[in-house]
Amino acid sequence: MSAYELRKSALVAAATTSGKREIEYPRKADGKPKYPSEIYGENVFTLKTMAKALPKPIFASFLKQRRGRQNLDKTTADSIAHAVRVWAMDRGATHYTHWFQPQTGTTAEKHDAFLSLLSNFTPGGEEVTPIDLFSGSQLLQSEPDASSFPSGGMRSTFEARGYTIWDTSSSMYVQRGPNGTSILYIPSVFISYNGDALDEKTGLLRSTEVLSRAACELVNLLEPEAHVGHVHTTLGTEQEFFLVDRAMYALRQDLKITGRTLVGQLPPRHQQLEDHYFGRIPSRVMRAISELELECLRLGIPIKTRHNEVAPAQFEVAPIFEEASVAVDHNLLTMDVLHKVAHRHNLRVLYHEKPFKGVNGSGKHCNWAIATDRGENLLDPTVRPETNYRFILFLLAVLRALQEHAPLLRLSISSSSNEHRLGAQEAPPGIISAFLGDQLNEVLDAIEEDRPLKNFSVPQFQSIKVGGTVLDVKVAGLPHIARDLTDRNRTSPFAFTGNKFEFRAVGSKQSPSFPVAVLNCAVTAAVREIADALREQMGSKPRLSDEDKLTVIRKYITLTKPVRFEGDNYSAEWVTEAERRGLPNIRSAPEAFAYLLKEKHMTMLTRTTGIFSEGELRSRYHILNERYAKDIIIEAETLKTIVGQQILPAAFEYRKSLAESAAALKTVAVDCDPEVEILEQLAPLVATLQKEYRVLVDVTAHIVADGESGEANAHAQAAYDQLVPVIARVRDAADELEATVADKYWPLPKYTELLLTI
C-alpha cells in the first residue's frame, strides 16, 4: 500500500470507527449513579484507610514519623506493609512498584510480585510452599540500577547501586494492570548509593521544608501570638495537551520519535477564527476525558476543570489545589492515565510544548501559593491589602526572589521543546517579570510614596476602589458580580491572580518538581532576608511596630520595582525596557543552563538553603545540557530520514510524472504549458531542499562528533547555534514543497488531517 493509500485509509478509519468505546459509570446498589465524592480515592490507601487497618499505637507511630518526629521502626513498617498488601490484593494487585521521578522528564517503575516461595526441608526432601509476602523493608526501599538513569557523572556504569525510598507524605494507590489485575504503586524518591538526589522529587521535598521553617519564622516575628508551626506550598497545575487520531500519529515518524512535527504546513483554517477556545468538546474527546476523570476520581486526583484550548485538537484539564508534592505526583499520574485512556479511544495524547508549528503550544501553568497549618493563605490580600502587612511582606518576598534569581527560574523551565513555545504568542518570553495588576501596584506605590490610595474609575461599566470586590455591569437583569483584586495578563511569565502566583512558563511535558523547588528556594532566601531586615529594624524592642514593618516594606517596594511589569511581554519595547531595568533576557536553553553554576545562584541553592549539594547541581547541569543536545540531534537525524527517504523521493516521483505527462502531450501536439509551469516551480524548490538537506547531514555529523569530547554546555550551545537554524531551514524548504507537490504523492498526514479529524 502506498503512503497516500495509508493516509486515506487512516482518514477513513478516523471518520468511521472513532468513538466506539463506552464505559459504564459506577452505580449504587439501587441503580442510581454514584456521586463523585463516593468514588473519590477508592483506589488509594489513604490515612483513613490505614487507620482502620492498623492498631492505634502503630498508626500513631506512623503519624509521628510522617511529621518528622521519629524514624519508622521495623514493627510499624511491617504492619503497614502487611495491611497495604492485603488491601491491594483484595483489589486484584499481584505486583508492587516504587514509582519515582528520575531526571528523564518522565516517571519510572519496576514491578515485583507479591508471590514468594518458602522452602521446608523434610525427611522426604525439600518442600516448596507458595506464599504472598510483602515486608516492611520491601515497602521502605527498592534498588533500581542507578547507572541506567541520568546522573550527570555522579555514578559510573560500574557503580550501579541506587535506592528508591517510600515518600510517606504521598499515599500509595492501586492502578489497573493487564488481564484484570492491578499493581500497588508506592510513591518514592530516588537517591544514589552515597545519598545524592538522582530524581526530581527529593529537591522539592527539601525545598518545602526549608521554606516552611523560614515562613514560620517570619509569620511568628510579625505576629508573635500566631504560633504557626508549619507552612506548606500549594499547587494547582493546569495541564494542556493535544489529542490526535492514533492512526494518523502512527504515520508521522517525527511525532513518534520527537513528539513534534518537523515538517508541515498550516491548514487554511486553524485557530485564526478564535472559535475553538471553550467551544464544544468533540464527542470522541469528551468520552476520553470523561474516562480520564473517572480513573482520576478513583485515584484521589481532584480534576475540577476541562475545556477546549485555543488551538484545534488542544485541550486542558485542571485540578483543585493540593499540597505541592502531592500535586506534582497527581499531575504526573494524570499524564500517565490520560496516555492510557487516549490509547483505548484510538487517540494519541501529545505533551510536547509545540507539536504543531504556527498554532498555540501547550504549557503547564503552575498556580502556587503558601498556606499555614491554620488554613491561612499567606498570599491572600484580603479586602484591605494596604493594611495587611503580612501579605505585603510575603508578596515582596516573592518579587525579591524573582529579582535576585530570575535566571534560575528561567533555566528551571528550559528545554529543547519548551523553547519553541516561549514568546510565541501563547507563552511568556525569556524575560522573567511579575504582573500584579493596577490595584496592587497602586497599593505598593501609595505605601512607598506615603500617600492615600487613589480611586479607580473606568468609564461606562465600573467604578471600583482598591479593596472593592463588587462589579456592576449596568444591565438590569444581571446581578452584581464579585471581582478579583487583579486582572489577568496572559503574556506574563509570573502573574499574581487574586491569591496566588501563576508560573505560566512551565512546559506541558515537564515535571513541575524542579521549577517549584527552585521557586521555593528563591522565596526562602528572600523571606530570610526580609526577616533579618525586620529584626534589624526592631532592634531591642520587644516586638515590631507598624512603623518598623512599613520601613522595611518601603525598602523592598523600591528594591523590587524593576521586576514588576504590567504591559505586553511580547512587545519589542519590553525587551528594550527590561534591559534598561537590568532584567536578564535569556534567549536559549543552553544560555540558561550556564546560570546554574554561577556563584550567586549556586550559593543560594547550596549554602543558603541547603536544598542541593554542589555535586547534585553539577550533575543536573550536565544532565540538562546533555539532554538538550541529544534532543536536537535526534530531531536532526529524524528530519534527515523523513526528507531523504520520504519527501525528496515523493517530489522526484511527482516531478517525473509531470515530465512524462508533458512529454506525452508534446508528442500528440497538445499544449503542455501547465505541466511545464509546475515543473519550473518545482525545480528550484527541490534543489533548495536538496541543498539544505546536505547541510543538515554535514552539520549533524559535526555536532555528533564534537559531543564525544566537548564540554556539555558548549556542545548544547553548538547544537543551538548550528543545528537548530539548519533544521528550521530544511523545514521551510519542505513546507514549500508540500504546497506544490500533488496530494496524491505526499507521504505524510497533513496538518488538516492531524488537527481536524477528532
From TrEMBL:
Protein name: Glutamine synthetase/guanido kinase
Signal peptide: none
Pfam families tied to this protein: Gln-synt_C, Gln-synt_C-ter, GSIII_N
GO BP annotations, alphabetical order: glutamine biosynthetic process
The GS beta-grasp domain, residue ranges: 94-195
Upper taxonomic lineage: Eukaryota, Fungi, Fungi incertae sedis, Zoopagomycota, Kickxellomycotina
Domain of life of the native organism: Eukaryota
Keywords, comma-separated and alphabetical: Kinase, Transferase
Domain GS catalytic stretches: 200-647
The UniProt record lists the keyword Magnesium: no
Family of this protein: Belongs to the glutamine synthetase family.
